[in-house]
Amino acid sequence: MESSHVKFSVSQLTAQAVVFAVVQRAGALGVPRSVAVLDESGVVVALCRMAGAPLVSVEVAQSKAFTALFGPAPPSEVLPPGVSRLPRLGAVGAGLPIVVEGRQIGAIGVSGGDGRAGPRMRAGRARGGA
After folding, report:
1. Which Pfam families match (predicted)?
2. Are 19 and 46 spatial neighbours (Cβ–Cβ below 8 Å)?
3. Is pTM, for the whole model, over 0.85?
4. Is 67 a domain residue?
5. pLDDT digits 0-9 by tens, 19-69
6. What's the CATH code of the domain at 38?
7. Are 65 and 37 in contact (CB under 8 A)?
8. Residue 47 lies in a domain
9. How far is the CA of 100 from the CAs of 10, 37, 63, 64, in angstroms?
10. Three-class SS of residue 45?
11. N or C of the chain: less Cβ packing under 10 Å?
């Protein structure tokens, strides 16, 4: 009989706080975004599409977060032999893992805009913002 194990996962409260921070930062930059927070199993915990964000950005944000669950390697390096793609695994990375005490508990993906605000969004994250 297999023993039980403890599973660590991003909480609903944490996921909502992450979404709120991204929405605030994107709003300050005037760039509507979609943001997705997934748990460690790839299940959506929080999702938001800001008014004006492209409709496709919802799917792209989720795909970026799902891809981040596999770590920093490109998708082509993490797929099992013989598998060319997984439906939710994006060709583009840019999602970020959510790590607490060395354990990956989820991932975040952000999409929308024209790409020029990306460095400003990352600068905000580096300063402790979204």
Report:
1. HbpS-like (PF03928)
2. yes
3. no
4. yes
5. 999 999 999 999 999 999 999 999 999 999 999 999 999 999 999 999 888
6. 3.30.450.150
7. yes
8. yes
9. 9, 15, 22, 20
10. strand
11. N
